[in-house]
Amino acid sequence: MSTIEHGFELLADNPLPELGCNLKSYRHLRTGARLVSAVADDPNKVFGVSFRTPVGDSSGIAHILEHSVLCGSEQYPVKKPFLEMLRNSMHTFLNAFTALDRTMYPVASLNLRSFRNLVSVYLDAVFHPLLTESAFEQEGWHLDLEEVDGRLQYKGVVYNEMKGAQANPHSVLMRASTSSLFDNHPYAHDSGGVAHEIRELTYSRLKEFHARHYHPSNAWLFFYGDDDPRWRLETLDTFFEEFTFRADDTRVPLYPLVATQQTVELPFSPIESGQEIEKGFITANWLLSEIDDPLERFLVGITSSCLLGSQSAPLYKALIDSGLGESVVAGGFSFDLRQPMFTVGLEGVELDRFDRVTDLIEETLSNLADTGFDDDLIEAVINSKDFAHREFGNSSFPKGLAIMAGMLSGQMHGGKRQSATLGFQDTLKQARARIEADPGVLTRPLRIHLLDNPHRSTVRLVPDSGAQDAQRRTERERLDELEACLDASEREDIRDRSLWLRQFQAEPDSPEALASLPVLSLSDIDKETREYPCEEIPLDGVRYLSHDIATNGIVYVSLLFDLHHLPAELLDHVELFADALRQTGAGALDHVAFSRRISGTTGGIGAATDLHSKERGEEAAAHLVVGGKCLGHQMEDMVDLLEQMLQSARLDNRDRVRQLVTQARSHAESSLLPSGHSFVGCRLAANNSEADWFDEVTGGIAALQSMRTQADNFIADWDRMASALEEIRTRLFTTDNLLVSVTAPSNDQSRLRELLRPILERLPDTSGDCQPWQRTQFPEEEGLVVPAPVQFVGRAYDLRQAGYEYHGSMAAAARLINTSWLWANVREQGGAYGCSAGYDRHTGQFSCVSYRDPNIAETLGAYDAIPNFLEAAELSNQDLTQLIVGTFGSLDRDLQPRAQGQTALARFLTGSTPDMRQQRRMEILETRPEHVRALAGFLQEAGATTNTVVMGSAEALDQAETSGAVRFRARTVL
C-alpha cells in the first residue's frame, strides 16, 4: 500500500549514509510533478526546479526563456526579482542553467528564512512569469536605433553572450562534436542559441515554449538540507493547486545508430600566436546506444578514465607523444545526454596531419582492445573514483546541488536510471567483482561502442583570420538591408521603441511592487566572524600549522615554500616548475609510473603557486605549494611520494618538459576569450603591488607571452631552461623556507608529524637570503587585440591617491554599484553579458570590468558616471538593510573542511587577525547612506587619472579611439 503525504505519493525511501542524507522520491498525484526530498544534517539548504526543454532549432529559445522568466512574476511583479534576490538575500548559490535538453533553476542558503524566500520567488518565476515583451527584447534580442539618422544595431544580453561563445573555438568544437552525430533531432541544435538564428526568434514563440514546457507535469523538483521535510511537501502541494496533470511527452527521442561517417569542417579566428604554420582542431566522435544499466554505465566510465583520465592514460599519452598536436581536447565517454557519446581529439594540429590523428586514435583503441589495460592503471582509476566520492561535496559548490546534478540526467531520461540511487560503494563493490571475474569487461566497450560502431563523425576547425570580420560584415549587411526597406515612419517607430525600452529599464519599480518581495532583517545576520582552527606547532625547527577539523577521514597536507627565495628572472619559470614536479616522473619512475602510483595510493598530489596580499606591508605572501591528500591509512605512501617530488623529480626530462611547455601555451591561449575579463582585471592591477605584479607575471598576459617565448625557442634555450628549473628546486626546497599546513583531526596529525620528520631531516637547511624583486612596469591605457565580436572593458581608479581610507562600508557600496548602476546600464541597456566592480583594500584600486560587451565607449561612460549615481542615491532604511543583508549573503559561505583549512592558512599568511575581521564585519553592519555618498567624491577625484585596459577586435578599439572615449598608449596583439 502506497504512502501519501500532502498530495505526494512516496515512491522510494533510500538512506545514503555515505553521503550523510536520506533520499525520498515522490510523485505529485494531481500534476505528476517529480520530487526528490533529501534530509541531511547540513545547514546549506538547496532547492532546484528543472524542466525538460529539448529544442527544434538554434534560436536560443530555451536559453532566452531561462533569462526572461526571472524578469518578474505574478506574485513578485518587479522587473528583476532575480536581481533583487541577488542583491538582498543571504544565498550561497543563486543561478540558472540551460543545457541541451533541460533547464535548471537552483538556489541555496544557510539561512532558513532566506531559503524559503528564494524557494517562493523561484517557484513563482518559473510557473507564473510575467514574460513581457520588454523582457524578451532585453534578454533575447531587439533592433536598436539611438538616433533617427543613426544606424540600426542588434542588441540583447543572450545575443551578445552567444556571439562571444561562438568566438571561442573550444565552444564551437564541443558543440559541433555533438551536433555532427545527429540530424533533425534536439541534440543537432545549439540550445544556447546561434546569433543569426536568435534574430529569427519571436516573442509569441517564446510564450508558446513556456506554456508547453514549464508545467508541473514536466517538472523535476529537489530539496536538500536540514529544513523541515513536511514544509517542502506542503509548500509544493499548495503551489500546485491550480494545476492538473497534462500528458505532453517532452522526452528526448532515441536516435537510431546508422552507418554514417560525417566530416564537418568549420572556420575559427585564430589567436595571433606568432606561429607561421597554420594549426587547427580535430575531434573523432561516436554516438552510442542507450546504456540503461547503472553498473554498465559505471564500468564504461572506468574504461573512459583508463583511456583519458590523466596525462599518463594510454590514449591521452599516445596523442601527446605523437607530436601531432599540442593538447588533448574532450574527455572520452559522456553520459549527460540520453545516449552516451565518446569524443576525443587534439588542438594545435597542422592541417595536413588531421587524418593521421584519426588514424592514431583508431590504432590505439584497437591495440588496447587486444591487449587490455594494465592492472596498476585500473587500480589507480578505481582508487581515484573512490577517493573523489569520499570527498563528494567538499568544494565551494553546495553538496546538495552536487547531488541534484548527479541525479538529474538519470531522472529525466528515465528507464532503470531513474530508480538508481547515488549509493556509490555498492556499485563500486559490484564493479570490482565484475572486473576480477571478467577482465575483458573494461575493453569490450572499445570494440562494441567504438571500433565496430559505424555511427561516428569527425569535426575539424581550420583557422581563418577573416572569419570574425566576415561575420561582422554579414551582420552589418543584414542590418543595412533592413534599413533600406524602412520608410521614415518605420525608422521612427524603431527609435521610439528603443527609447521606450531604455526608459523602461531605467525606471525604478514602484514601492508596491518592491513591497511584494520577501525580505530579511539585520537580526538575521550573524554578528560574529566565523573562525577556523589554526595552531602553530614546532616541528624540528619547521613551522607547522595544525587545522584540527573533521574531514571524513581525509588528511590534507600542504608544504609551502616562499618564492621570495627566487630572483625575479626565474619567476616566469615557476608555473612550468610546478607542472614538471608532478608530470616528469621521479627517481626510477617515469611520469606514467609515478602518476599511477599517486593515483593508486593517494587522493592526489600536485604543486601550484599560492598568492595573497598581506594586511600590512608591500611584500606579497607568495608560495609554491606542494600538497597532497589521502586517507589515514595512505599517509605513509603520500609522504614518500611528496619526498620523491621534492628530491628527485626528473626536471631534466627534456621531451616531457617540452610537452608541458607546449600544453601550457595552448591552454593559456585557449582561455583568453572565455576568461577575457580575468586577463583584463589582472593587467589593470599589475603595477599596483607586488602581489598584483606577481599575478600578472605568472598568470596574466605577461605569462602568456613568456609561455610563447619558451615554446618557440625551446630547443635553443633548453640548457638554460633546465638550469633554471634545477636552480628553482635548489633555492626553494629548504627547511628554513618551509611552512607545513595540515587539515585533519588531531590523531591523524600526530602520526603524520612522525612520518614527516625524516623528510625534513633530509632537506637542506638553508638556501640563502630572500631575493628583492625588481618589478617591471606594464603598459597602461592598453588595447589588447583579439579576434572577438565582443569586448572586455576595464577601467581602474586609484582611490588611495584620492585620499580614501578603507572602511568596511565599501563592500556594501560596491554591491550597490554592481547590482544597480552597472546591471542597469552595462548589462540591461548596454547588452553586455556581465559587469562587475570591486575594491582592493590593499592597494586602494577600485576597478570595473565588463564581460562579452558589445560596447566600449558607452561602458566607459557608465563607469565614469558612478560618482553621479552614488551622489543621487536615496537609500531608505529598508534599502540600506537589504543592501547590508545582501552583502553578507555574498561574504558568508558554508565552507567544507578543506576550504576551512585553506581559509585559516590564508589568514595566517596575510597577517589577518580576528580583531581585523570583526572590525570589518561591524563596519559593514553599520553602513550608513553617508558612507555610500562620500565615496562619490573620491571616485570623482580619482577619475582624473584612470587606467584603462580593453580586450577586443582591432576594429572595435579603433572605433573607441575615434569616438574619443579612450586613447590607447599601447596595443598588444594577442
TrEMBL record:
<dbReference type="InterPro" id="IPR007863">
    <property type="entry name" value="Peptidase_M16_C"/>
</dbReference>
<feature type="domain" description="Peptidase M16C associated">
    <location>
        <begin position="461"/>
        <end position="710"/>
    </location>
</feature>
<dbReference type="GO" id="GO:0046872">
    <property type="term" value="F:metal ion binding"/>
</dbReference>
<dbReference type="Pfam" id="PF08367">
    <property type="entry name" value="M16C_assoc"/>
</dbReference>
<dbReference type="Pfam" id="PF05193">
    <property type="entry name" value="Peptidase_M16_C"/>
</dbReference>
<protein>
    <submittedName>
        <fullName>Peptidase M16</fullName>
    </submittedName>
</protein>
<dbReference type="InterPro" id="IPR013578">
    <property type="entry name" value="Peptidase_M16C_assoc"/>
</dbReference>
<dbReference type="InterPro" id="IPR011765">
    <property type="entry name" value="Pept_M16_N"/>
</dbReference>
<dbReference type="Pfam" id="PF22516">
    <property type="entry name" value="PreP_C"/>
</dbReference>
<dbReference type="GO" id="GO:0016485">
    <property type="term" value="P:protein processing"/>
</dbReference>
<dbReference type="InterPro" id="IPR011249">
    <property type="entry name" value="Metalloenz_LuxS/M16"/>
</dbReference>
<dbReference type="Pfam" id="PF00675">
    <property type="entry name" value="Peptidase_M16"/>
</dbReference>
<dbReference type="InterPro" id="IPR055130">
    <property type="entry name" value="PreP_C"/>
</dbReference>
<dbReference type="GO" id="GO:0004222">
    <property type="term" value="F:metalloendopeptidase activity"/>
</dbReference>
